[in-house]
Design goal:
It is built from 30 helices and 12 strands. By secondary structure, it is α/β, with parallel strands linked by helices. It folds into 5 domains: about 170 residues, P-loop containing nucleotide triphosphate hydrolases (Rossmann fold, 3-Layer(aba) Sandwich); about 60 residues, Helicase, Ruva Protein, domain 3; about 120 residues, Zinc Finger, Delta Prime, domain 3 (Up-down Bundle), CATH 1.20.272.10; about 80 residues, no CATH class; about 80 residues, GMP Synthetase, Chain A, domain 3 (2-Layer Sandwich). The strands form 4 sheets. A 5-stranded parallel β-sheet has the order 2-3-4-1-5, covered by helices on one side. Strands 10-11-12 form a 3-stranded mixed β-sheet. Helix 24 runs antiparallel to helix 25. The protein is extended, with a radius of gyration of 45 Å. It starts with 6 loop residues before the first helix and ends in an 8-residue tail after the last helix. The relative contact order is 0.05.
Length: about 625
Amino acid sequence: MSNFVVSARKYRPTRFKDVVGQSHVTNVLKNALDSNKIAQAFLFTGPRGVGKTTCARILAKTLNCQNLSEDKEPCNTCGSCEAFNQNASFNITELDAASHNGVDHIRSLIEQVRFQPQQGKYKIFIIDEVHMLSIGAFNAFLKTLEEPPPYAVFILATTEKHKIIPTILSRCQIFDFKRIQTKDTAVFLKEICAKEKLEAEEEALHLIAQKADGALRDALSIFDRLASIATNGKITYDLVSENLNVLDYDYYFNIVDHFLLGNTSDILLTFGEVVEKGFEPDIFLYGLSEHIRNLLVARKVETHKLLELSENLKLRYVDQAKKSSKSFLLNALSLLNDCDINYKQARNKRLHVEMCLLKATHIEHMMKLSTEKKTKPTSNTPQQISFNEPSVTKPPQSSASETEKESIVEVVVENAKEDWKKDSTPAAEEVFSPKVEEENTTSYEVQNAKANGEDIPPKVEESIQEKKEVNLLSGSSSINIPTISIHDMETAIKKEDEEKDNEVVPELTLESLKEVWTAYAMNVKSAALKNTLTSLELSISNGQIVAKVGSKLGEGYLREDTGLMLHLRNHFKNPSLKRVIDVDTEKLQVLIEKERSLNPKEIFDKFSEKNPNIKKLTKALDLSPDRM
């Protein structure tokens, strides 16, 4: 039989300082040992393979170590440490709650708590996967966990803290273990390579660490598998990517280069090569999204620490990030995210991904077009305003030529348009409408009428009174633009305030309330609600409306109707007006009595009162109301 021991067991830490990536836990435990403040129960929780059980064993060994070092590390040489390393310690008990989760198992453990340690100060109980205990086992464990003997220490470990009942959690000191960072895992693997006399490329170790996803035990398992097939004792990046079904980084770098250059054919060929290698399109999407995310991170020196990559690979990302604009990366990431969301719904999944890649190739082109459109001066010719030649004498000619005047008029009109477009009033929107030509024509009709001694047409005169004439240029025609002065605005506001002050507020009286209430009830469509509103009793108490209804059903109809109170508040100009609904218990009791079914004796008495011969008939036939 082979003596091979997996790396997860062979290189399991035996001291706190050897634990990888959990310094926030080990430092607290060492400080507790230094100050001699040992809790009665600990709970270690976190993802799988991050060192929970390892830390529990180190703590258990340290508590009974006879020669602790100055930094509170176990000596591994005393009798207690040697017994623990050989799994022969009677003071440390380990229980797997996954297979020992019943009440009887916990009762057996409680029996062991009664006996004091044979050697050392403490008797430690390590319960792994404690969340697997049954509810009965948890309840049986509560009292012992809360008030254990002074020599007993419980260390619980779990990956699913939310499954543990709160009464257990409140009795423990909780330590949350975190995922181990990629760089820490890669450094630990490098140390093992040196001990195992293996060579490994830095990119290969980082790839193993990324595949482990924060679990050091998973990384060591992958490392053992790759080390067994490494040629000449060397673990290369190609070997790792091939055996872990991981797509090479070069594909993603090439795809982004094709995006930037707009090479649609090269993108389709590269993606086809990826599919031919056996990779699913969704795996490619995930990797490409992660690649573009890394490019975004690589744009700033401050965020380089977020890149869980080797130094050589970081330089490649920084180099490509310099070629890519932030807008391109964000747009590409958005496209890939939408493609990933809709991937499961697509029937032709390969075509779905290819369409996304083709769209991404046009991002740079579309951004260039957008930039050119913003920087390029507008080529739209300004709206030409035609002026009809009137039959009156023209004003004196200025020194400028007619062509210069027209160009100046166009510029002024365009500037006026831009200023008036900022105004949100409908009048401002209508000023530069196609009716400008008609308005100019109207102004010349006025001039012709004055020159010929004729009366101004009524419609033209009304339009002149409504609009104020603005001269754009001396000697040229004018456009009528409605203007509102500040004085007019102040006058309108003052008038509105005076109308509010003079507004008569209706007084809330019982008569006015009934009148408004009845009017509202007549317009209600629901027959049940209308019947409720018209049959109840109204009164006013302390400025509140009291509505007295005769049934619980009527109360429900009244509470569901919200339009009535809005109507009353608007009518009486009182936003704080409230309503109180009161149920008439006496009337309700009468209705209940009426609706209650009568028993045979009551029916007999009721009919006997109306017809006394019924009693004679029952006596003659020897009948009883109870037997009817």
